[in-house]
Design goal:
The protein is an alpha/beta fold. The protein is built from 17 helices and nine strands. The N terminus is likely disordered.
């Protein structure tokens, strides 16, 4: 991920000091942890001497640091409005830490804990607002190679260099096509910039980091080995997925019955929709969903039947509600329990569509290197698509997810999926 540097050609002023980790974290700890202690001591009682307060302060420090690290990591992903993740991130870390405190029956102050949590979120909300007002990310572009059109990427101030004699002043980094046949003057310019501490980025690295899409056009430029997901996290995620699926199937069984009754009353046909799809490592499996469309007679055009168009008249009244809230996806918890799917991953496609995309798009099959998911990076960024041109963009999102396969990216997807479910964005 690209981060804003605070050294090199960028003059570090008071406007940029707020970007430094030590200012963010130290200020947050003083504001969120120390301030409640001071406020409670205003009546002359030194509360920090009590074991209860000490336990709470130590727990709050751990929760705050974990929240800060998670917030910084989440905010590094493209397309993420970091301020929108402050409250859920700190609620998660504070909740986990104080759940441990409660489980081991360690005495703590609810006032101190609650105050630290509220002040932590307020501090980073204020910091985010300050950053947006005083910092403008600026990148210099070396001419030559595949850098044309890079200015179409928003939220960055692009500065196109005209000559190797032009100094890179006031920029956060230099972008160049490092695979292009650049002149010796430009190669010396790039080398000198790197020696001076100016970050130098390959244009493809910058594009992926700012758009959240990873294109694979030639095997030589992005080998399959470099995109293999972390095997340890892959195994851990499978175990966590199955545990969560079991909880959902048992805990939400009453809701399943209510949805099933609504479907039967609304239209004729089975409650569950079954369809064969291409999954993990290209294996064929049967996906289960709540039926949200009318039952159609058999047709020779399997590809057309597998597509859901905008305003599709086959969607029932109950089905439209289920699709908007993504409740029609819940039976796929059974697929997750069976190891065929994950909660998060590239969306599995019907066999007819998958075969069509494989014939049209290079490396399409590579998305099957991880288990398909109910939600994913492409779903929260692009929504539902079917046409080949849109699927190519979706494929680039899938490759980005595989390349950056991590619990942090999964957490971003979970939080954005909750927002999508609440708004019904992208449903068909």
């Amino acid at each position: 991920m690209i981060s804003i540097p605070t050294a090199g050609p960028v003059v570090v002023t008071a406007r940029h000091r707020i970007l430094r980790i030590r200012y963010q974290l130290l200020g947050g700890l003083l504001f969120a942890v120390a301030l409640p202690v001071v406020l409670r001591s205003l009546d002359g009682t030194w509360v920090l001497g009590a074991a209860t307060t000490q336990n709470t302060v130590l727990a709050a420090i751990v929760a705050h640091v974990l929240g800060f690290l998670a917030f910084r990591r989440i905010g590094s992903f493209p397309g993420v409005a970091a301020a929108g993740f402050i409250l859920p991130t700190f609620a998660l870390t504070y909740g986990l830490v104080f759940a441990v405190i409660f489980f081991f029956r360690i005495d703590y102050s609810r006032f101190q804990a609650g105050g630290s949590f509220i002040l932590s979120t307020l501090w980073y909300f204020g910091w985010s607002i300050a950053v947006r007002r005083v910092v403008r990310y600026r990148l210099a572009v070396v001419p030559g190679g595949n850098v044309t059109g890079i200015e179409r990427i928003h939220n960055v101030e692009w500065h196109h260099l005209a000559s190797p004699d032009q100094p890179a002043v006031g920029v956060n980094g230099i972008v160049a096509d490092l695979t292009a046949d650049l002149s010796e003057a430009w190669e010396r310019y790039i080398a000198d910039a790197a020696l001076a501490g100016i970050p130098v980025y390959h244009v493809k690295q910058v594009t992926e980091s700012l758009t959240g899409r990873a294109a694979i056009e030639h095997l030589s430029e992005n080998t399959l080995g470099s995109l293999n997901p972390n095997q340890f996290y892959l195994s851990f995620k499978e175990a966590a997925d199955r545990a969560a699926a079991l909880v959902v199937l048992v805990g939400l069984s009453p809701l399943f019955l209510v949805i099933a009754a609504a479907i039967r009353l609304d239209s004729t046909g089975p409650v569950l929709f079954r369809q064969q799809r291409v999954g993990y490592r290209g294996a064929i499996f049967t996906v289960y969903k709540f039926r949200s469309m009318t039952v159609e007679p058999a047709s020779d055009d399997d590809r057309e039947r597998a597509m859901t168009r905008p305003g599709d008249g086959r969607v029932t009244r109950v089905g439209r509600f289920l699709r908007n809230c993504r409740l029609d996806e819940l039976p796929q918890a059974l697929n997750i329990l069976r190891g065929e799917m994950s909660w998060i991953g590239p969306r599995p496609e019907a066999i007819a569509l998958s075969r069509w995309y494989e014939a049209e798009l290079p490396f399409y099959r590579y998305r099957h290197i991880v288990r398909p998911g109910i939600t994913g990076w492409a779903q929260v960024n692009q929504g539902h698509v079917t046409e080949v041109g849109d699927v190519l963009e979706k494929l680039h999102y899938d490759f980005y997810y595989i390349k950056n396969f991590s619990p942090w990216l999964d957490l971003v997807i979970i939080l954005r999926t909750i927002r999508v479910m609440a708004t019904g964005q992208g449903a068909r």
